[in-house]
Design goal:
- This protein has 695 residues and is an alpha+beta fold.
- It has 3 domains: 152 residues, Roll (Ubiquitin-like (UB roll)); 387 residues, Creatine Kinase, Chain A, domain 2; 127 residues, Up-down Bundle (Four Helix Bundle (Hemerythrin (Met), subunit A)), CATH 1.20.120.
- 50% of the residues lie in helices and 14% in strands.
- It contains 25 helices and 21 strands.
- The strands form 4 sheets. Strands 10, 11, 12, 13, 14, 15, 16, 17, 20 and 21 form a 10-stranded mixed beta sheet that branches.
- Helix 10 packs across helix 11, helix 15 packs across helix 18 and helix 23 packs antiparallel against helix 24.
- The radius of gyration is 28 Å and the shape is globular.
- The structure holds adenosine-5'-diphosphate (ADP) and magnesium ion.
- The site of magnesium ion has 3 residues, from loops.
């Protein structure tokens, strides 16, 4: 059946077209002023908008509404209320007021607040984010909202993101003024590439670790991994294809521009990339995409795994954050061809380099999670060290600026940086680029450290804010200068000299990079508890405060929540591992060893001449395995009990990282070794072979 894209796309979104259609002209105009110019929404306008929304939603089959928001857990939250309003005579009407549209009051006590509420005010409320369109999902009208405490502290991921977009936009406008441009609409753009795994529902249901933690805590490597490289861009399984088709359709209905889908490198791994859009909308879209992936998978007998590292030894899943800035439709990270624009491009490039170097720890922190710790530095993902890839051409340009030399491009075009004619930057899609945490890819930067599961609000909040800060530094240096071009070049030379250490075009997977990075003074924050303190460094707190992104209380709260979540996640993993060993693995190994022992006995009962040496060897290995598994369990038990007693959040997270995780790893090694020798029918859970290779 042909798809009528005109009908389909955005059909579940209360977007601009619908608003123009359904709102009285004056109301529409008022609302535009609220959305675009930040004017306050009057009750009358809110009432009219709410009414129109309800009518529209009911025509689409919705009888409920919800304020849709992103609490500090990073996942989205909703609580459904119906439009129902009882009236006299035992009847009811469907009503939706402006008040209900603009403000909600979820029970804030059940959401993490990192002590904000105990310090300040007990309640929190959700407020309509007029910059995001309302939409219908599962017959519920969803109203995107910000979640804040009554004293104004942000309790969500979105509020500071919006603030950071404002901050960078203000600085960009000032910079562009110097270039003679008076722009109106500046926003950052994001194109999030989402990786995920699809496995069969029945396998998932048989693995407590996947069910409770999203990753396999045990599992011997499959006989075949990804070494044949036959999955990447390979033809897509029919079941998966049907899943992807349904997903695309549902995403398009929600106005999410899903564009590319393909198999990834690992078996059973896939990727979806949308066309980029305004950061906040792109992140809303990504969260919805993740939710729909999970839901739609179930229609096809599949489960969508979004954990960063569901399978040990197999590529993990990332979420590349493609990022740029757009000013009145112009992509500011497009190198362009005309000289003046090139200088402008170099100013923004310099700002990003400075920002990423100066706040490398903060950026690293934003994507530090228990799940991502397994992925970063593994063989397919960027290392935990932040560095930037510029590609040969652009690095040459940077070098030339530092050395005050002419730049000679590969095409033998000389380029005097006074009148730069930048070579056109073809996408540098080399392997080296793939290993870089932060790569320039033609007309945007691609931040590759975020893991598949993370809410991208945090890293974009930081990215926007640190670039705002770097642009402000630039403005301070050149504003009022007699010769603006000269001052700009001097500034760039200085900044690029100071921050060149962050530029690394080599192979990030190479072991020598770790030593080299250390020599350069780059941070190597190995795991989440090491990275999180970057949040509360004085420089970070000052930065957030200066640009009104987060106040010190909010920063502290977020740091605590992240620590707490980390420890809780590892705690659940350890408990799950122990339970699986006692309930599943040990009984299985014991049962199998009993069978082997019985076989020996039976044979010997018939004749002592029948050899049992194979069984004897196997039995000895199994008996030894049972002992090893048991003592590894005892060690994990002890490490866990100790970590659970620690009260200081940072120390507790450190303890989970440094003693519980190694104990879990040791236990896993013992169990996985047994999986290789225990009979298939005895093994209690689906194997990697089984889960990753299916038809
Ligand atoms: P790949 O990284 O796989 O080579 P592409 O370069 O085509 O793929 O794009 C990857 C993602 O980058 C897409 O989601 C795309 O929309 C996004 N993207 C492209 N240009 C921009 C931009 N100016 N700002 C933000 N994201 C962008
Ligand atoms: Mg990419």
């Amino acid at each position: 059946m042909a798809i009528d894209m005109h009908e389909l796309y955005g059909s579940m979104v209360f977007n601009d077209t619908v608003m123009q259609d359904r709102l009285p002209k004056s109301t529409y105009k008022e609302l535009q002023r609220v959305i675009n110019d930040g004017e306050t929404l009057t009750r009358d306008v809110a009432d009219e908008v709410a009414h129109a929304m309800k009518e529209w939603a009911m025509e689409k089959g919705a009888a409920h509404y919800t304020h849709w928001f992103q609490p500090l857990t990073g996942i989205t939250s909703e609580k459904h209320d119906s439009f129902l309003t009882p009236i006299a005579g035992g009847r009811a009407l469907m009503r939706f007021s402006g008040k209900e549209l603009i403000q909600g009051e979820p029970d804030a006590s059940s959401f993490p607040s990192g002590g904000i509420r105990s310090t300040f005010e007990a309640r929190g409320y959700t407020a309509w984010d007029t910059t995001s369109y309302a939409f219908i999902k599962d017959n519920v009208l969803c109203i995107p909202t910000a979640f804040v405490s009554y004293t104004g502290e942000a309790l969500d991921k979105k509020t500071p993101l919006l603030r950071s977009m404002e901050a960078v936009s203000a600085e960009v406008k000032r910079v562009l003024k110097l270039f003679g441009k008076d722009v109106k609409n500046v926003h950052t753009t994001v194109g999030p590439e989402q990786e995920y795994f699809l496995i069969k529902e029945e396998d998932y249901a048989n693995r407590l670790d996947l069910l409770l933690t999203g990753r396999t805590l045990f599992g011997a490597p499959p006989c075949k991994g990804q070494e044949l490289e036959d999955h990447y861009f390979g033809s897509i399984r029919p079941t998966v294809n049907r899943f992807m088709e349904e997903l695309d359709t549902e995403l398009w209905k929600l106005g999410i521009p899903a564009k590319t889908k393909h198999n990834e490198v690992a078996p059973a791994q896939h990727e979806l990339a949308p066309i980029f859009t305004v950061s906040s909308a792109a992140i809303d879209g990504n969260l919805l995409t993740m939710e729909l992936m999970r839901k739609i998978a179930s229609h096809h007998g599949l489960v969508c795994l979004q954990h960063e590292k569901p399978f040990e030894g197999i590529n993990g899943s990332g979420k590349h954050n493609n990022w740029s800035i757009e000013a009145d439709g112009e992509n500011l990270l497009n190198p362009g061809k005309t000289p003046y624009d090139n200088l402008q491009f170099l100013v923004f490039l310099t700002a990003v380099i400075r920002a990423v170097d100066e706040y490398q720890g903060l950026l690293r922190m934003t994507i530090a999670t228990a799940g991502n710790d397994h992925r970063l530095g593994a063989n397919e993902a960027p290392p935990a060290i932040v560095s930037m890839f510029l590609g040969d051409e652009l690095e040459g340009v940077v070098r030339a600026i530092i050395d005050s030399k002419e730049y000679v491009s590969k095409g033998d075009k000389t380029m005097d940086l006074g009148v730069p004619a930048l070579p056109s930057f073809i996408k540098d899609n080399t392997d080296r680029n793939r290993t870089s945490p932060f790569a320039f890819t033609g007309n945007k930067f691609e931040f590759r450290m975020p893991g598949a599961e993370v809410n991208l609000s945090d890293c974009n909040m930081v990215l926007n804010t640190i670039v705002a800060k770097a642009l402000q530094d630039y403005l301070e240096a050149v504003e009022g200068a007699k010769d603006f071009e000269k001052a700009t070049k001097q500034y760039m030379k200085q900044v690029l000299t100071d921050h060149q250490r962050i530029v690394f075009n080599g192979d990030g997977y190479d072991d020598s990079w770790v030593g080299e990075a250390e020599k350069r003074g780059l941070l190597n924050l190995k795991n989440t508890p090491e990275a999180l303190p970057e949040y509360i460094k004085p420089a970070s707190i000052a930065l957030f405060e200066q640009f009104h992104i987060l106040n010190p209380v909010e920063v502290e709260a977020r740091y605590e929540i992240r620590l707490d979540q980390y420890s809780k996640k590892i705690n659940i993993e350890a408990q799950t591992a122990l339970r699986m060993v006692h309930a599943r693995y040990l009984p299985a190994i014991i049962e199998y060893s009993t069978t082997v022992a019985e076989s020996i006995e039976a044979k010997q009962g018939i004749s002592a001449k029948i050899s049992t040496s194979g069984e004897q060897k196997l039995l000895a290995k199994l008996a030894d395995g049972i002992d090893q598994v048991t003592s590894a369990t005892e060690r994990l038990d002890a490490a866990l009990a100790k970590a659970q007693q620690v009260t200081d959040l940072q120390k507790q997270a450190d303890d989970f990282a440094n003693s519980v995780i190694p104990a879990m790893r040791a236990l896993r090694n013992e169990v996985d070794a047994m999986e290789l020798i225990v009979g298939h029918e005895y093994w209690p859970v689906p194997s990697y072979n089984h889960m990753l290779f299916y038809t």
